[in-house]
Design goal:
This protein is α+β, with helices and mostly antiparallel strands. It is built from 4 helices and 10 strands.
């Protein structure tokens, strides 16, 4: 089962992993990616940031990504929780947890989901630096990571 949550509150990493793996005794692997806020970006100190999204549109875009992962790999569940609102350095921003019978598919699918999430999910990030606030553009490295997945497996 795949689930997507967008929320302001912190999430419980262990609970998310347990919910995913306890549903199916055939699961042999759960791979988890946790993205957290850094205190530096593009060489500048970042004190905090605000993440915004468009409710409904964001979840729909994420569902397309999870559906594509399901088409490419034999998966037994994906959980994505992404925070919005005010965040501080070290705050977890996103968790992607993927379950499958074998680790190889879980690792590949998890990496695929986060690569596509970084480029295709409609989130907007505003950072606060000593020089003031700034909106953050997509990184070229994220686009390159997405392109390596091509159209099919």
């Amino acid at each position: 089962m795949n689930t997507i949550q967008i929320q302001k509150e912190p999430f419980d990493i262990t609970a998310i992993q347990e919910q995913l793996r306890s549903d199916n005794p055939a699961i042999g692997a759960v791979v988890t990616f946790i993205g957290q806020m850094r205190d530096m970006n593009e060489g500048d100190q970042v004190s905090n940031m605000t993440l915004e999204h468009y409710p409904g549109m964001t979840e729909k875009a994420l569902q397309v990504i999870l559906d594509e992962a399901d088409r490419r790999w034999a998966l037994m569940g994906i959980r994505v929780v992404h925070r919005v609102g005010e965040l501080q350095p070290l705050d977890p921003i996103v968790i992607v947890a993927v379950a499958s019978a074998h680790r190889g598919e879980a690792f590949q699918a998890c990496e695929f989901v986060i690569d596509y999430l970084k480029t295709r999910a409609p989130f907007w990030k505003k950072e606060r630096t000593p020089e003031g606030e700034r909106w953050v553009d997509a990184r070229h490295a994220d686009a390159a990571a997405e392109q390596r997945w091509g159209k099919g497996r």
